[in-house]
Amino acid sequence: MQQVNLGMIGGGTVGSGVFHAWQKNGDLLAARLGIKISFRKIAVKAIDEPRAYPIAPELLTTQWQEVVNDPEIQIVIELVGGTGIAKTMVLGALAQGKTVVTANKALLSAHGPELFAAAAKSGVNLYYEASVCGGIPIIKALREGLVANQFPAIYGIVNGTCNYILSRMKFEGADFATVLAEAQKQGYAETPPDLDIDGHDAAHKTGILGSLAHGFWVNHHQIHTEGIREVSKIDMEFAAKLGYTIKLLGIVKQAAVKNPGRKTLVQVSVYPALIPSAHVLANVNQVFNAVFVRGDIVGDTLFYGRGAGKDATASAVLSDVADAAQDLKHGNQMRVPPFVPTAQAGKVVPLDEVISQYYVRFSVVDKPGVLAKIAAIFAAANIGISSVFQPEGDEGASVPLILMIHDAPNAAMRKALARIAKLPAVKAKPVMFRVENLE
Amino acid sequence: MQQVNLGMIGGGTVGSGVFHAWQKNGDLLAARLGIKISFRKIAVKAIDEPRAYPIAPELLTTQWQEVVNDPEIQIVIELVGGTGIAKTMVLGALAQGKTVVTANKALLSAHGPELFAAAAKSGVNLYYEASVCGGIPIIKALREGLVANQFPAIYGIVNGTCNYILSRMKFEGADFATVLAEAQKQGYAETPPDLDIDGHDAAHKTGILGSLAHGFWVNHHQIHTEGIREVSKIDMEFAAKLGYTIKLLGIVKQAAVKNPGRKTLVQVSVYPALIPSAHVLANVNQVFNAVFVRGDIVGDTLFYGRGAGKDATASAVLSDVADAAQDLKHGNQMRVPPFVPTAQAGKVVPLDEVISQYYVRFSVVDKPGVLAKIAAIFAAANIGISSVFQPEGDEGASVPLILMIHDAPNAAMRKALARIAKLPAVKAKPVMFRVENLE
């Protein structure tokens, strides 16, 4: 039986998870692939650091160069994370002609094209299934399973921490700060939580999905990113009454813009949005992730699973290892290249030009004439109001006023809201979320 | 650029869908794969039969042998269906050294091992993504994306016709016969509807999923199969009140049995079951399919999409064509073989030995003592009742009595129900559905 040797850099939570999964199912993998996969060396921060699962001590080293430079190692798994030393490690392994498997979304997001070029130069592959949505084989789905499709729309719940918080807010009527604090205690949210809560982690993943789907590399700074700090209990409740659920979405869609040009214009954004509660995507709860992919041929599909955690991530890492091992067995170079620019490459459209629908909540003084003033500003901006709700409620000096807004460009909406915010009767910064009907 | 030539047998609904998808996205496929894929010949029943999409007439022939025997054709797509002439065609193409792509679940279900052996003998591959759940890339997910996992449980909504009928019954409170008749009018159900309604189509697909997941071939006759004819409006309503939704499930799970032996015992069944309404699988509605896959490493995953239809199926067929074309480009033989028997192969356990939970509805005479008699029979069989509901209701001479039953072997349950059915106070055949809590 063919033999393939692995090296791994990183032996913490995910690294020990990968080792454990290989210990458990290595024989099964060998039977399925006809390839014996063995670990040869694992570089860690400290030999005796605490781990989720034990790693055979004779495999451990604290020198990552020993992994990258070992001529017997054919595949290097990088689980260090971040964009610093991890980049040196990955480039080093590729330069040595080793296939690299990484779970590092931040690194790909920051340096994808450079890494892919290095892989191509060395004629080896760079696999990254684990970088987006942990155990969900979404990279393989986009690159292989749905390869015959164009992708008019992708909506992903790609951050488990945010989905956990929003799910608890929905089902328990709890407010954001309370749930966040509890999530931090339970280990579902980090301290500080900014990378998750402010949407940056989701943006890393959304950029990778967008790049794969549309054949041009989406730069991180092109992704309009909003987090979930502004989602309040009251918004969750009103959304539910209107038949919607609020989810943080990574969105990649062929943009509805006013003056489309020849190139495909693609909206790539991360923001909390109202989606129909009956939709399967709205029923993805707790820490689960899901990516709703619309293909022009296949129609609507959805891929669901755990987006993080040592075991789910290990499943994705080992599936990449299996593909890489098959490449070695069959002498394939770049059978499925990590990223393929396509001729019809498009570009990211600024969110200001994108046309969206909106839910807006104002805190207003409870007296006649306020709605008329707000409506006049929207009318002047040529923005149509589709419905108005003034629920019973007592916020002391002010009351909530909720408007659902027809299709309007984001720039026009932004400017109108800025004007409305200055009205004396408007007592707080307007809260605005987009509505995605997934149609 | 490398060139690959396709032949296709079958130019009806799905065949013309494949041709249309290729016309639309062939250039994109070429860009993504670095391979130009061309159609060379398409065998059809009649040149001028009506088609969903037109096919270039110069490609058409009525002689399937012209496709199988054309030395320029490297990949043959079989879309004829059935287990008769289609088998001859597939074996013929394999014997000629051509890779075969098929959507034919009935053929695989009946003759899988023979076809795989023929493929192995010729050193070519046999792809069948389109045979299970149309556009959902579930075969690729099990074989590649989740390759590092054992599969303790798989629950699939794999028949769109049944899911459409059950969805309408749930949301409209309609009864089975009415919805079936309408579905037949609208083309969502065939006439006669038996293949779908009685679970046979689901059994074909479930057998293929079970075989892939557990590494031994599941024969069609080993699959306990029940359809949805017995699901009534009243059951749908009571299930909802108890927090459940009734779905037809294809089930492949490591069995809960009383005396497990050394081999993995696998339950492979198709039946309508109550599943928790809040679960993502319960929210898969209308004609959509979904497969809920539990991996021992990855945890819970779900794959959702259209399970049938010319376009969704075309997406799957072309993804197989892409894989086959990559094999040809890279000179791979059987990179991912169609089916790999594994050492730890298990066996299918008879349903009688499987332990399930149950929902049972009796039609009983409305007088004291009936429940006591029923409970006594269950007690004698060592079957525990977890709850009893006697809803208000007027069925004339009888009233409904609903019991939820704890874990009990199917044989014991079957025998107890047969005894209960003979009680004079029991006025109709008891209705029994299993409860799958997906835990």
Helix content of chain A: 25-40%
Largest beta-sheet characterization of chain A: 11 strands, mixed
How would you name the oligomeric state of the polypeptide chains in this document?
A: homodimer
CATH H-tier superfamily of the largest domain in chain A: Dihydrodipicolinate Reductase, domain 2
CATH T-level topology of the largest domain in chain A? Dihydrodipicolinate Reductase, domain 2
Please count the helical segments of chain A.
13
What is the arithmetic mean of pLDDT of chain A?
95
> Which radius of gyration of chain A do the C-alpha atoms yield?
24 Å
> Largest contact between protein chains?
A-B, 66 and 66 residues
What is the terminal-to-terminal distance of chain A?
A: 50 Å
Write the layout of secondary structure elements.
Two copies of one chain form a homodimer.
Chain A: E1 2-9, H1 13-33, E2 35-43, E3 60-61, H2 64-68, E4 75-78, H3 85-95, E5 99-102, H4 105-122, E6 126-127, H5 138-145, E7 153-157, H6 160-172, H7 176-186, H8 194-197, H9 200-214, E8 224-225, H10 233-241, E9 244-254, E10 265-276, E11 288-295, E12 299-306, H11 310-330, E13 347-348, E14 355-365, H12 370-380, E15 385-389, E16 398-409, H13 410-421, E17 431-435
Parallel strand pairs in A: 1-2, 1-4, 2-3, 4-5, 5-6, 8-10, 10-13, 10-17
Antiparallel strand pairs in A: 7-9, 7-11, 9-10, 11-12, 14-16, 14-17, 15-16
